[in-house]
Write a structure and sequence with these properties.
The protein is mainly α. The protein contains eleven helices and no strands. The longest helix is centred in the last third of the chain and has 29 residues. It is globular and about 45 Å long.
Length: about 240
């Protein structure tokens, strides 16, 4: 690669910046309100579990060298961790939770890609696992601070975002390097298709995040409590002025 040639991962980041920023804002806005509600948190884990599980199962089915190369460490494999977390948050019957239409459409899209152009599944692997190593860690830290007030004293540690003793910056660097090495063998047409599919990743993520129920209830509770505090402060101020 020529020294002046732009890395493919950098090119992807620029090409997906707008939809990526929108996706980040949506996830942060929705799940920030749900950090203290375990049911909503579990609902978010449920929709993404099916996507991560599909991608990891596809690794076994495809037996494709580049696809396997992108999983630079077994630490990235999160299917079992998702299942442990879902058992904790949604209970033993979590598998019977109905899938939203957005999630069904997402999975159908992945199935079509696997049949027609399995290389494009790597766009989902790259962006979703990198997101878990980045934004997922931020959400996990927020949950450790704003966890469910009704939970027992011993807080549950979310397994899906737990990368204890893992050098996450190095893992992310290895991940990007693997993606760039894979892209180096792609034609320009293949690279462009990969970038277009990358935008689709964020669009479909937005749709399944929107499908998670319960955020309106959380928002109502937050606004209700905030309004009560504001009214209390106004009442105190008014009483102070009257009795001054």
């Amino acid at each position: 690669m020529a020294q002046s040639e732009e890395l493919f991962t950098t090119r992807m980041r620029k090409a997906t910046r707008s939809i990526h920023s929108l996706s980040d804002a949506l996830v942060n806005a929705k799940f920030a309100l749900s950090l203290s509600d375990e049911t909503v948190w579990g609902g978010g884990l449920f929709v993404f579990y099916h996507i991560f599980a599909y991608l990891e199962d596809a690794k076994k089915r495809l037996n494709m060298r580049d696809y396997e190369k992108l999983f630079v460490s077994d630490v990235l494999l999160r299917k079992d961790a998702f299942e442990d977390d879902l058992l904790h948050y949604l209970g033993e019957d979590w598998r019977s939770t109905p899938k939203s239409m957005a999630l069904e459409n997402y999975l159908e899209h992945l199935q079509n890609l696997e049949r027609e152009n399995p290389k494009l599944l790597m766009a989902y692997v790259y962006h979703l696992y990198l997101g878990l190593l980045s934004g997922g860690q931020i959400l996990a830290k927020k949950r450790s601070v704003f966890g469910d007030a009704n939970s027992p004293v011993g807080k549950y540690i979310d397994r899906v975002t737990d990368f204890t003793d893992v050098d996450i910056p190095q893992l992310k660097n290895d991940f990007r390097q693997a993606m760039n090495e894979i892209a180096a063998k792609m034609s320009e047409e293949e690279k462009q298709a990969f970038i277009e599919e990358s935008n689709q990743v964020f669009l479909m993520n937005n749709l399944i995040v929107n499908s998670v129920g319960g955020q309106n209830k959380v928002l109502y509770n937050v606004l209700y409590k905030t309004s009560a505090i504001v009214l209390l402060i106004l009442g105190v101020m008014l009483a102070y002025k009257i009795n001054k």
